[in-house]
């Protein structure tokens, strides 16, 4: 690391120099993150080329790319990926519709708006695993409040192969729509009022104003919300893991957990982890790009 | 024309407000339901139709903190009379409190797990926020070569799927004996939160005018003095908001805790669901444990309400 410090800086002549302070402030954190994030990942990269099992004392044998080949040929893993993709689509689009819809409704003077917004934001601050747990209570087929309230009889939300994934997605939508709402509200309140005045002078219809004025201006922030939620939904573990054991609803993180810590296939699990990691890093890259764009505005 | 449009606009507004209120109530109903379940008598928690009206009681909380056994025979009246009020609540439900050799009430594992959660969340928050604050200051005030790349690297560590990191961490911790220890979990949560703290604090640091420190430097302060006496007090709100976010993240974390702890250092998130399906499923007790666990987060969310947007967007959107 280099620095360009103005030679006239007084701090450079008194106490520690700015360079020392900068290094002291920045390097330990970066080093800490490398030791506890990058190093473990390199370690598991090594394991991904072996048949290592953490549960046995046997030494690891080098198997080359065999683990990666096995994973790409495994229908169970492909199904998990497909399930995850469908889950991401259902859950993120649900959050988008509910969250953006709520933001449009809230984007007007409402008495007690601050309180309403804070109450609506509560779900996303709660622990996903605890949320999953109490939705289990709500979904219970025989005495759950949901079946009773909607008159659905004994619908077994979490054990039915066709319903389980949607039941988890509904919970996720409940939890994270407020996030989309929060970002949308920020976007909506930043639309200059004079644009709406101009549109109404021009006798533009409400629909036209929405699609030609509101949406283009809110789009960048909506995109950030959607990319972030896509990334998070792709990684979903806790909520789905506590709510259902339905194999049809098994997300890739749960598959990975089972491979690594139930079947103790450490080698293959490390390989799968790497495939997941690369996917997540791709989405992260896109996300940070848009985040920086929003910052520059 | 104008009159008509405002009238329809007002009507539209009223409908929108009504819809918002209804949706808010629907959104809050799951939280309401779990909270009331924690105060229900056992039979009413799983009754059909669901009971909305009930006599609230705190028996589930007494049960949450104690170990119990089924009563095999009715208790003698004098024993019942001698028992404290909270023990009677349990006796009324057909159970007795487990006692150790000295006759002391045996606590359940819940208080331990709750305290573990507190230890791990508070310590890791202090560490992450301290590191995050100074690193953010470094990035904010000095030229760092490859700053954008470094910041991306820092944020990307936060985005890693926990299970992916947990596989090698489990093996490494096992090798050095950090599995199932507070220290192990604290280190991981600090690593996870520090990236977030750097990003959020950098935004707050950027907002503090450089002139403040420059004036202090001219007055004869060293850079360190200026940082501690001028910058830190100015950043206090930002530090508090960052700390609350880090605390909530650590408090809520599940995957690492599930994989890296099992008894001694286990926190509440992996513990609470593990109680489902053990013997008689007493939902009132699970609900009580859940409600106690959610209270700190609910309070913090309320305190943090004006900073939520900023925190959730990693400091990028400031309003």
User: What's the total helix number of chain B?
Assistant: 16
Order of helices and strands of chain A: HHHHHHHHHHHH
Distance between the termini of chain B: 36 Å
The gyration radius over C-alpha positions of chain A equals 25 Å
Query: How many strand elements of chain B?
Result: 2
**CATH class label of chain A:** Mainly Alpha
The helix-and-strand class of chain B reads mainly alpha
Q: Distance between termini of chain A?
A: 29 Å
Give the CA-based shape of chain A: globular
CATH level-two architecture of chain A: Orthogonal Bundle
Relative strand content of chain B = under 5%
Annotated CATH homologous superfamily of chain A: MetI-like
Helix content of chain A: over 70%
DSSP helix fraction of chain B = over 70%
Q: What is the count of structural domains of chain A?
A: 1
Oligomeric state of the chains present here: heterodimer
Largest sheet of chain B: 2 strands, antiparallel
Helices and strands of chain B, in N-to-C order? HHHEHHEHHHHHHHHHHH
Helices, strands, pairings?
The complex is a heterodimer of chains A (297) and B (319).
Chain A: H1 18-47, H2 66-72, H3 75-106, H4 113-125, H5 128-139, H6 145-150, H7 164-189, H8 193-201, H9 206-235, H10 238-243, H11 252-261, H12 266-296
Helix pairs in contact in A: 2-12, 3-7, 3-9, 4-7, 5-7, 7-9, 9-12, 11-12
Chain B: H1 2-37, H2 42-45, H3 59-65, E1 68-70, H4 77-82, H5 85-92, E2 95-97, H6 110-141, H7 147-159, H8 162-176, H9 182-207, H10 210-218, H11 223-234, H12 236-252, H13 255-260, H14 268-274, H15 283-303, H16 308-312
